[in-house]
Amino acid sequence: MHQNEESGSQHYQIKLVRGSMSGANIPEEAYTLKTHADGVTITAQTAHGLFNGLQTFRQLLYRKDGTLMVSGCAVRDSP
Q1: pLDDT score, position 15
Q2: In which residue ranges of the chain is pLDDT below 50?
């Protein structure tokens, strides 16, 4: 996470990318989700895929000492 020097707050970027995914015959619900030190990137070909990726991201969140956390991971999912 990035820390704002002025306020001391931390920022976590959630990046949604609507674009092509590699592979043949990718279902419209498919997505990839990758976490990194300062955020998460969810990529999908459709809004439906981005929605599915956000739902998975929500499930990966947990609270530690009052702060929302997510473990490092990479997910590629499709129905």
Answers
A1: 95
A2: 1-5, 7
Residue matched to tokens 């990758």:
34
pTM: 0.81
Q: How far is CA 22 from CA 14, 26, 39, 65, 76, in A?
A: 21, 8, 22, 39, 11
Identify the CA nearest to 14 among candidates 49, 62, 53: 53
Distance set, CA 23 to CA 19, 53, 54, 60 (Å): 13, 18, 21, 25
At 1 the pLDDT is 42
Check residue 38 and give its pLDDT.
87
Distance CA 72, CA 33 (A): 10
The structure tokens listed for 47 are: 């809004």
CB 50 within 8 A of CB 58: no
Q: Token pair of 73, please?
A: 């991971």
CB 3 within 8 A of CB 9: yes
